[in-house]
């Protein structure tokens, strides 16, 4: 009986936190869920579509995946600055319209330039709505913490859980529709964003109390001189480069081991299920024992270990179920690392951001990391094409999170962000 009560306790605490959130926070967290359902119905299958159906070279596929990330993450700084200037609602609604157009275009694209344009449009759409949503959740989380509601990382962990719940449902939806064709998958993703657009046009308030709008000028200079913030951005970029290998190097390994990409959807589901079930307990455990810097350190080391697992097993060239076990180990370790890194990095930004510029700083962190992913993904695609020993790309990627540890700034008190 005691064990049963202990098992139920984390769920009850999660429900208690959710029930005490204000309606705006609930809407924004559910927004993350809906965004990811539509997005992850398409993205996990893009690499195979480009390489097989359209016949693109490995470096081109890697570059396009990196371009998608850069047009999203790299332009977050624009979306964040626009959210600071004009508010959350118009930026989110515009982003939804562009995402719908991008998914429809990708479904009908055949030429490389059409794919490039659609991928950039899809990425830029997220560059508008994501920093607006994330910065407002972070600002509300700081208010929540200062009002005695609990640690800000708890609220941000809920955002991560919602996103991963969407990432769990999305690939399963995409895999189901892929039996028809890739175009159907893209149109289904667009349909999800039509529903998101309609819901937010109705529910998202015109003005959010306590969010002061600022001028577009004057924020970039201080940001570029903020060495501690830029160091955090670089370390976060190393994590994001590692995370994006779910869409580039992992599909290659799954195809080699299983002869098809059918198990890929289940590995994505495994990752999402881990976050949905374990993120909140892990966040609470970490909050009692580790500061933000140590949390990110532990997460980066786990991510490095995930790449090392496949690197060590790759020379054996196992296939079938045994061949998929190292890939599953990689996914588990990468996901555990994500649970430590992502909420901690988001919670750290308000301490480093200038007053009234949280959207800009939230966007800038993603922009710097997006540039790292663009360069790193193209380099990874080149490694996969060069005929090097199969463990080499995995070893190189294992080294990157370890090198990022030296970049993490030491945490100290900073002015509260607005």
What would you note in describing this structure?
The protein has 418 residues and is an all-alpha fold. The chain is built from 17 helices and no strands. α8 runs antiparallel to α9.
Summarize the structure.
Residues 24-416 form the Major facilitator superfamily (MFS) profile domain. The protein is mainly alpha-helical.
Descriptive tags:
418 residues, mainly alpha, Growth Hormone, Chain: A, 17 helices, disordered C terminus
- Any idea of the CATH topology? Growth Hormone, Chain: A
Based on helices, strands and strand pairing, what is the structural class?
A: mainly alpha
- CATH homologous superfamily placement: MFS general substrate transporter like domains
Q: What letter string, H or E per element, gives the SSE order?
A: HHHHHHHHHHHHHHHHH
Tell me the strand percentage band: under 5%
Domain Major facilitator superfamily (MFS) profile: 24-416
Membrane topology: Multi-pass membrane protein
Keywords: Cell membrane, Membrane, Transmembrane, Transmembrane helix, Transport
Transmembrane segments: 21-43, 88-108, 114-133, 154-176, 182-205, 226-244, 264-287, 299-318, 324-346, 358-379, 391-408
């Amino acid at each position: 009986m005691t064990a049963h009560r202990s098992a139920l306790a984390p769920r009850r605490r999660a429900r208690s936190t959710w029930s005490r959130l204000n309606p705006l926070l609930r809407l924004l967290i559910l927004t993350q869920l809906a965004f990811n359902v539509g997005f992850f119905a398409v993205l996990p299958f893009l690499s195979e579509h480009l390489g097989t159906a359209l016949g693109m070279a490995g470096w081109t596929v890697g570059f396009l995946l990196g371009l998608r990330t850069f047009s999203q993450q790299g332009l977050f700084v624009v979306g964040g600055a626009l959210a600071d200037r004009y508010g959350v609602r118009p930026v989110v609604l515009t982003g939804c319209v562009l995402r719908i157009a991008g998914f429809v275009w990708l479904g009908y694209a055949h030429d490389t330039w059409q794919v490039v344009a659609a991928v950039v449009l899809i990425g830029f759409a997220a560059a508008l709505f994501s920093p607006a949503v994330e910065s407002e959740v972070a600002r509300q989380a700081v208010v929540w913490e200062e009002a005695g509601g609990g640690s800000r990382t708890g609220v941000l962990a809920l955002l991560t859980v919602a996103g991963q719940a969407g990432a769990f449902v999305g690939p399963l939806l995409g895999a189901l529709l892929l039996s028809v064709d890739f175009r159907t998958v893209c149109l289904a993703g667009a349909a999800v964003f039509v529903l998101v657009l309609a819901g937010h046009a109705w529910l998202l308030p015109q003005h959010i109390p306590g969010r002061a709008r600022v001028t577009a000028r004057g924020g970039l200079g201080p940001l570029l001189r903020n060495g501690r913030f830029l160091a955090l951005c670089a370390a976060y970029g190393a994590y994001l480069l590692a995370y994006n290998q779910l869409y580039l190097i992992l599909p290659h390994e799954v195809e080699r081991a299983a002869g098809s990409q059918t198990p890929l959807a289940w590995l994505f589901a495994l990752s999402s299920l881990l976050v949905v079930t374990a993120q909140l307990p892990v966040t609470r455990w970490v909050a009692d024992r580790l500061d933000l810097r140590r949390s990110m350190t532990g997460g980066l080391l786990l991510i490095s270990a995930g790449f090392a697992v496949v690197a060590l097993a790759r020379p054996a060239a196992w296939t079938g179920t045994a061949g998929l076990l190292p890939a599953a180990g990689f996914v588990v370790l990468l996901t555990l690392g994500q649970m430590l890194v992502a909420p901690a990095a988001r919670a750290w930004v308000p301490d480093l951001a200038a007053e009234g510029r949280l959207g800009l700083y939230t966007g800038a962190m993603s922009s710097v990391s997006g540039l790292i992913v663009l360069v790193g993904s193209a380099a990874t695609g080149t490694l996969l094409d060069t005929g090097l020993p199969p463990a080499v790309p995995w070893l190189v990627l294992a080294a990157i999170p370890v090198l990022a540890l030296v970049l993490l700034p030491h945490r100290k008190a900073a002015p509260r962000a607005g």
